[in-house]
Design brief:
Strand content: under 5%
Shape: elongated
Number of strands: 2
Oligomer: single chain
Structural class: mainly alpha
Strand order of the largest sheet: 1-2
Radius of gyration: 31 Å
Length: 480
């Protein structure tokens, strides 16, 4: 049917017709009787309204099936686009109509109570019918979310790519562009049709549904090369920005983008709580990819630092995604489960280093006296023999974990006074000082070349065998 308007937005014209007929019958009957006959009429009204809610729900489910049918999309894109646009509008109108009905049923019940005899008034209860329409609002919005999610084809796009065969990192992948096109085709229409509260609910539900599925899609891939993981990390960031911008998608913005005018016309403000939601949920995907990018030596420490809520099963899958055989991945997971991945002596996949109690059951670890108070603020000195010399691989893993998530720096027990990249270079040098070898420092700098811009580590390390008592292992200007 057509659509009318109300305080809550555009509604289906059929809703107005239903309540208009109810009003007419109610007036006629209330002029004749105020007894049990009028009460029986209320029961009839309730059945009619519940039947109407059921019809709307059936139509919403039909729209959801059409949006989820991607075969039509491949056969005739133009016809499919027009049909999909109509279904988005239909779902939005069902949301508005259900809200309108829920708001109207209450006053109708109150009018019925006033007209009835006193002894019959308590038998009128419109709460159940109100709840029916309120549930329909949620169901229609959920269908809208799932339908749009299917149209973005994000999960399919991630799984289809052979990430282990990529040789170059380029711009965002084509499936991200397709996702953006799907969002621009739907979100502005939703924004223009439903009330602001429901649009906010829609954005929250969509972001909260998409992010975990992207996270799960990473585990469904076969294997990642470093290049493939870097490309997917870039794509994940692009998807995160699309989701953060979701509340700003308006019809004016859609028109501006379609005409090649860029994102002019976006006037809506992104709520801070929504931005935090997207950053938190998509941050899990980015952290997972950073773990996959980290060196195999010390992988367990990196996994625990970046994915503290990750399970042993997740760690085993990460090992497989990095190219390990299933037996090797299972052995690494078993070692981590026994605590080997977080022990002082070594990691689940290689030698491990516990700094500041990361992944350690023993709390903080004493540091070498070669590092002065100027280098690490608030740390007491200890003898050089207090800590066994860490392996280069463990040092790389610790530095790589820091590069992957600077916000985790506090977990390593360091308080930084330098910009992140300089601090990481200094951290790498600091870790190697304990090795007592300039050659090993230079080797570490070479191994870190693929992880961060190479800094001048030589300038931050004193003589390879001795460190003056009153001098730190890192120059004062570049101190951590």
């Amino acid at each position: 049917g057509g659509a009318g308007s109300s305080s809550s937005g555009e509604v289906l014209a059929s809703a107005g017709q239903v309540f208009l007929n109810i009003k007419k019958v109610f007036r006629r009957c209330s002029n004749l009787t105020r007894g049990k006959t009028l009460l029986a009429l209320h029961a009839v009204f309730t059945r009619v309204l519940k039947a109407y809610a059921s019809k709307l729900n059936t139509r919403a489910q039909s729209a959801g099936r059409i949006l989820g049918d991607l075969k039509k999309k491949e056969k005739d894109k133009d016809k499919d686009a027009a049909e999909v646009s109509a279904e988005y509008r239909c779902l939005c109108l069902i949301v508005n109509t259900a809200e309108y009905c829920s708001e109207t049923v209450g006053p109708l019940g109150e009018s019925m109570r006033r007209m009835l005899d006193v002894n019959l008034r308590e038998q009128v209860d419109a709460a159940e019918t109100e709840d029916e329409f309120a549930s329909l609002v949620t169901a229609a919005l959920t269908t809208l979310v799932s339908g749009l999610e299917a149209r973005t084809e994000l999960v399919t796009g991630i799984i289809k790519i052979n990430w282990g065969a990529l040789e170059l990192v380029g711009d965002q992948s084509t499936y991200v562009d397709s996702c953006k096109a799907a969002l621009l085709a739907a979100v502005p229409r939703v924004h223009a049709t439903v009330s602001e509260n429901y649009f906010r609910f829609f954005c929250d539900k969509f972001a909260g549904s998409v992010a975990p599925k992207v996270y799960g899609a990473v585990f469904r891939c076969k294997r990642f090369s470093d290049t493939g993981a870097q490309q997917l990390l870039l794509d994940a960031h692009a998807v995160k920005m699309l989701l953060i911008d979701l509340p700003t998608y308006t019809t004016a913005r859609e028109t501006a983008v379609a005409s090649g005018g860029g994102l002019v016309g976006a006037s809506a403000v992104v709520p801070a709580s929504y931005s935090r939601l997207v950053t938190r949920e998509m941050g899990k995907c980015e952290a997972l990819l950073k773990v996959i990018l980290s060196p195999a030596d010390g992988l367990a420490e990196t996994f625990r630092a970046l994915l503290p809520g990750g399970s042993i099963a997740d760690f085993r899958l990460v090992c497989e995604l990095k190219g390990m055989k299933k037996t090797e991945a299972a052995a690494a997971a078993d070692a981590m489960a026994r605590g080997g991945g977080a022990s002082r002596g070594g990691g689940a996949v290689g030698g491990g280093l516990n700094v500041g109690g990361v992944g350690s059951s023993g709390g903080s670890v004493a540091r070498s006296s070669r590092v002065t108070h100027a280098d690490i603020s608030g740390t007491e000195h200890a003898s050089a023999s207090a800590v066994p010399a860490p392996s280069p691989g463990a040092a790389i893993a610790s530095a790589a974990a820091y590069v992957a998530a600077p916000e985790k720096a506090a977990a390593f027990g360091f308080r930084l006074r330098r910009p992140p990249l300089v601090a990481v270079s200094s951290l790498a040098a600091l870790l190697v000082v304990g090795l007592g070898s300039l050659r090993r420092a230079e080797a570490l700098a070479g191994e870190l070349g693929g992880v961060l811009p190479q800094g001048d580590l030589r300038g931050r390390i004193h003589d390879k065998n001795t460190v003056p008592k009153n001098a730190g292992g890192v120059d004062g200007e570049d101190a951590i």
